[in-house]
Amino acid sequence: MSKPKWHGSKWIRPEKRRRLYKRDAFRCVYCEQGVEHGVMLTLDHITPRELGGGNEATNLVTACRSCNSAKRDLPLTSFITYLADAGVDTDGIARRVRNSRRRKY
Q1: Which end of the chain has fewer CB atoms surrounding its CB within 10 Å, N or C?
Q2: Is residue 5 part of a domain?
Q3: What does the alpha-carbon distance between residue 27 and residue 99 come to, in Å, rounded to a whole number?
Q4: How far apart, in whole angstroms, are the C-alpha atoms of residue 91 and residue 97?
Q5: Which domain holds residue 16?
Q6: Measured distance CA(60)–CA(47) in Å, rounded
Q7: What's the average pLDDT block by block, 10 residues per block, for the chain (105 residues)?
C-alpha cells in the first residue's frame, strides 16, 4: 500500500506545530506574510518527503497556504528559481530558510 500524497494536519503533533510557527514568528518564510495579514499558515518540508525529507524541525518551515501550494514537491532551489522566473523578488528567501533551520523551536 502506498503512502498518501496528502497528510492533512494529523501528521504532526499540535504542540510541535505551534512551536514551529512561533520559531518562525508566525510568518511565511517565503513571502513574509503573517497571521496579521489574514493568511492561513501551514508547515512546508524544505526537502520534500517525496525526495527523502523527514518531519524533523530542521526540515520544516512555516509557509502560507499559497506559497506551500506553489512549492508543491519542488526542492527549495527549484522553487526559488520558479519564483524568480515568475518575477517575484527572491532576495532573502534562502537566508530566511537557513536562519529558520538554525533557530531552536
Answers
A1: N
A2: no
A3: 13
A4: 12
A5: 12-102
A6: 8
A7: 53 93 96 92 95 95 96 96 96 95 87
**Residue written as grid cell 514551529:** 20
Chain centroid to Cα 94, Å, comes to: 12
| Residue 46 in domain | yes
Q: How many folded domains does the chain comprise?
A: 1
Distance separating alpha carbons of residues 17 and 60, to the nearest angstrom = 10
Alpha helices in the chain (DSSP H): 14-23, 65-71, 76-85, 93-102
CB-CB neighbours of 64 under 10 Å: 24
For the whole model, what pTM was predicted? 0.86
Residue at 7 is within a domain: no
Note whether residue 3 is domain-resident. Answer: no
Answer positive or negative: Cα dihedral of 42, 44, 50, 54.
Answer: negative
What gap in Å lies between CA 30 and CA 91, rounded to an integer? 10
